[in-house]
Write a structure and sequence with these properties.
66 residues; alpha+beta; 3-stranded antiparallel beta sheet; elongated
Length: 66
């Protein structure tokens, strides 16, 4: 498992989600939680984002095939 931490601009680029949608999904428990890197800095584990994307792809493919 990768321990690489990615910051918000990269998370937005990889997921295609806006900042507000990312934080809304986090509060709903449907997006990986951010990790505090300091008083005013957060990041996400790259592996968590990759897993979330893989799950979205699998759900989408299942819906399109079913």
């Amino acid at each position: 498992m990768s321990n690489k931490i990615i910051r918000l601009p990269e998370v937005k680029g990889r997921t295609g989600l806006s900042t507000s949608t990312i934080y809304l999904h986090m509060t709903k428990g449907i997006f990986p939680k951010a990790i505090s890197l300091g008083e005013r800095a957060v990041g996400w584990l790259e592996a968590d984002i990759d897993q979330w994307l893989d799950e979205r792809i699998a759900v989408s493919k299942a819906a399109n095939n079913g």
